[in-house]
Every structure is written in C-alpha cells, then in structure tokens.
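Checklist before submission:
- one chain only
- standard amino acids only
- sequence pasted in full

Submission:
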Amino acid sequence: MKETGRVLIRPSGTESLVRVMIEGENQEYITKKAREIADLIERKLG
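Returned file contents:
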C-alpha cells in the first residue's frame, strides 16, 4: 500500500469477530487483499 492507502485490523469490541478495513486507490486490489487477510485470520483463529 505504501503511501497510497492503509490497512486496519482490529477485534470488535461488541461482537466475536475481527474487522478488516483497507483503503487505497485500486478497488480490485484492495478487495482482493481484504479477502486474503480475512481468510488468513479465519484460518488462524478458526
């Protein structure tokens, strides 16, 4: 993402889930990366 975006990963304070937010210039790229991160979290946490 370098200087063109940001990634925020945090546990929800009210639900048993992890929130993944990505901002950037290329919607296709950030959608793909968000899914990859979410999948990785799901595999690690079950």
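Reviewer check: The first helix runs from residue 27 to 45.
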